[in-house]
Design a protein that fits this description.
Blueprint: H1 2-11, H2 14-43, H3 49-79, H4 82-100, H5 106-120, H6 123-134, H7 140-164, H8 167-184, H9 192-198, H10 214-225, H11 228-238, H12 241-248, H13 256-281, H14 285-304, H15 310-323, H16 327-336, H17 340-356, H18 358-395
Helix pairs in contact: 2-3, 2-4, 2-5, 2-6, 2-7, 2-8, 2-13, 3-4, 3-5, 3-17, 4-5, 4-6, 4-8, 6-7, 6-16, 6-17, 7-13, 7-16, 10-17, 10-18, 11-18, 13-14, 13-15, 14-15, 14-18, 16-17
Length: 408
């Protein structure tokens, strides 16, 4: 019991809780657009195919903001500290999401999704880096799993808030929650590992240095690649689930918000399962491989199993979310793979580059769609992401219980 109590006390430390609840608000705001895409665009006067193409454009603007913000916050996280990112990022995305509730035109909407994307980019990487550095190495997998799990719960909250309130109010709620969280962060302290590194006369937070060494650059790109199937499923299969449901000729229209909520409900359990299994078998790579293979099978079932019942479709949304529930492990591996002077840069940019990969993935999907159709074009894109992820995972080292007190 003493070991269990000690683990619980470590996981309930303020830095861990703040990172976890911060990611909850982050994911609420990040996925709120997927939930309110259709009603918000309809209220701005868009109909039919414009809902898909304008929705894809707005999603890409948000993801482009994540790409830019990922680099900015990652560099700041290593140069100025993890806490500077936790404070700055949440302030920007909270204000941006409040502003989203006031948009009246598509260009305004696009600009505010871009600004929100910049703000949202900093939360996960800084939080996971801080948690990984303040927790003992044997239990840090539990800490990052807690962060990721609460984040996915935030995505589920987005569905319920959008179901209870008009889409503008849902944006106001997200922004308000973020500003409230800033009050809790006042008492959070910096990690000791980073504080020690900050006193050294070494380069910190140099994004360019990730590419000045061939092996380091390959390691970085491999970390990005193993997360691609997650955001293929989220950014294409789930975000555009109404269009997939129509192509499948289901017996009822798909509600995008419900599909998002169910997929992330599945991902909650997937994140918990993958995190616990990783601790049990003492390996990150083996469990990521297991979930990649399960994900590939579920994508094939989702796209090509000939079912027509809407409830069956929603069940597969849950299962698809579960098999993509290795997000916590993926981000943890990125944080563990690099030294303290580059850790925040990597842990922040890697998940955001995966999110930003939705831009080329949706572009390829829309390019193939006229000739291949919705289902087969999505299948081709999904197969491509899976092959890339499996090849990348094969070349990465195991990081379970790796000592993080080192520099590049």
């Amino acid at each position: 019991m003493s070991n269990s109590n000690s683990t619980a006390r470590e996981l309930l430390r303020l830095p861990v809780l703040v990172a976890a609840f911060g990611y909850l608000v982050d994911m609420y705001d990040l996925f709120l657009f997927s939930v309110v895409r259709v009603p918000s665009l309809q209220s701005l006067g868009l109909r039919d195919d414009a809902l898909l193409h304008t929705g894809a454009m707005l999603l890409n603007m948000q993801m482009f903001g994540l790409l830019i913000g990922g680099i900015i916050w990652g560099v700041l996280g290593d140069k100025k500290g993890r806490l500077s990112v936790l404070f700055g990022s949440i302030l920007i995305y909270s204000l941006a999401n409040l502003a989203n509730g006031f948009v009246e035109t598509v260009p305004q909407y696009a600009f505010m999704r871009f600004i929100a994307g910049i703000g949202l980019a900093g939360e996960l990487g800084a939080g996971v880096t801080l948690v990984a550095e303040v927790l003992p190495r044997k239990i840090r997998g539990y800490g990052t799993t807690l962060v990721a799990t609460l984040g996915v719960i935030g995505a589920i909250m987005a569905y319920f808030m959008a179901d209870l309130f008009e889409w503008r109010i849902s944006y106001f709620i997200g922004g308000g929650l973020g500003l409230l969280l800033l009050l809790l962060r006042v008492r959070v302290f910096e990690s000791g590992i980073y504080a020690k590194t900050k006193a050294m006369q070494i380069s910190r937070g140099s994004f360019i240095s990730l590419f000045t060494n061939g092996r380091r650059a390959l390691r970085y790109l491999q970390c990005i690649a193993i997360g691609l199937p997650i955001w293929f499923a989220v950014g294409i299969l789930i975000t555009f689930s109404p269009e997939f449901g129509k192509a499948m000729q289901l017996n009822a229209p798909v509600v995008a918000g419900k599909a998002v909520m169910l997929a992330f409900a599945g991902q909650v359990f997937g994140d918990i399962a993958s995190g616990l299994l990783s601790q049990l078998v003492r390996s990150r790579k083996k469990i990521i491989l297991l979930f990649l293979l399960l994900s590939a099978a579920m994508v094939a079932v989702y796209l090509f199993l000939p079912f027509k019942d809407i409830n069956t479709f929603y069940i597969f949304c849950v299962l698809l979310g579960f098999t993509n529930g290795y997000w916590a492990l993926f981000v943890t591996v990125a944080a563990e793979m690099f030294g303290t002077n580059l850790r925040a840069t990597v842990a922040t940019t890697v998940p955001n580059f995966v999110r930003g990969a939705v831009i080329p993935l949706t572009t390829l999907f829309l390019f193939l769609k006229p000739s291949w159709g919705v289902l087969y074009s999505a299948g081709a894109v999904g197969l491509l992401t899976m092959i890339i992820a499996l090849l990348a995972l094969r070349g990465l080292d195991e990081t379970f219980e790796k000592d993080l007190d080192y520099v590049e």
